[in-house]
Amino acid sequence: MLGVYAVLDLHCHILPNLDDGAQTMDESLEMAALAASSGVHYIFATPHCNTRDPRKNYRSAPLIAAYETLQQALDDRQIPITILSGAEVLARGDFEAHLEAEDFMTLNGSRYLLTEFYFDEAPAYMEHCLQAVEAARLVPVIAHPERYFCIQRNPGLATDWAERGRILQINKGSLLGTLGQSACLTAALLLRRAVNPVIASDAHRVNLRSPHMGPLLELLDRSFPEIDPRLVLHTLPLKIAKDETV
Ligand SMILES: [Fe+2]
Fold it and tell me: Around ion ligand 1, which residues have CB less than 5 A away?
């Protein structure tokens, strides 16, 4: 069932005690071990950034130390996972000023910025922010578009984004149906119709949007025979990690 390729998980709240993901280092290590057991080799550690939480997770020495501390703990326990840097940046508030100041951690230091919106955000504000990302010479990787109400109503908006070179990052849990029926239907549609979608766990805990990829691989095998799992879980995320054009 598991692929013979290294899975890269592009979106994971694995850094301890920086957001509503893992709360302790033990929890982070448990998540990593579970991911590794399902074929994941690389995890982009993407704490929430620029939310209303006082922990803003902008680019800083302590944040960079947090990736390194987790990597050291993984190495010490011989858990075969490589941590790549990142953040899940919420487009709100002073988003543009922080973009200009280069306060956001991109995915592994690449041109790709994992960008999320409030679920009820207006399409016009989304477009405004996506253009701001592009004006900063970055490429938006749009976190879980299938969860946004405007995309559930009009999936064509997201397929248009993809045609314009913006990357759609679909959540594993949406496809598996654990994030509601609308998200499930929209995720399936985007996976089938959008240009170059990728899938990631958006894991928060061992048992909250789990980092284990097994059920996803089974679902792709069973229900999406036209989708190459290697492309959405390895090839495209690897291009992002290497800062190559998708
Ligand atoms: Fe997330």
Answer: 88, 202
Measured in angstroms, how far is the CA atom of residue 94 from the centroid of ligand 1? Answer: 20
Q: Which long-range contacts (CB under 8 A, 24 or more apart) does 93-100 make?
A: 93/50, 94/50, 95/50, 95/129, 95/132, 96/129, 96/132, 98/50, 98/58, 99/132, 99/133, 99/136, 99/138, 100/136
What kind of fold does domain 7-240 have according to CATH?
A: TIM Barrel (3.20.20)
Q: Which pTM was predicted?
A: 0.97
CA of 193 to the centre of ligand 1 (A): 23
For the chain, the domains span 7-240
154-166 average pLDDT score = 98
Per-residue pLDDT band at 4 (split at 50, 70, 90): confident
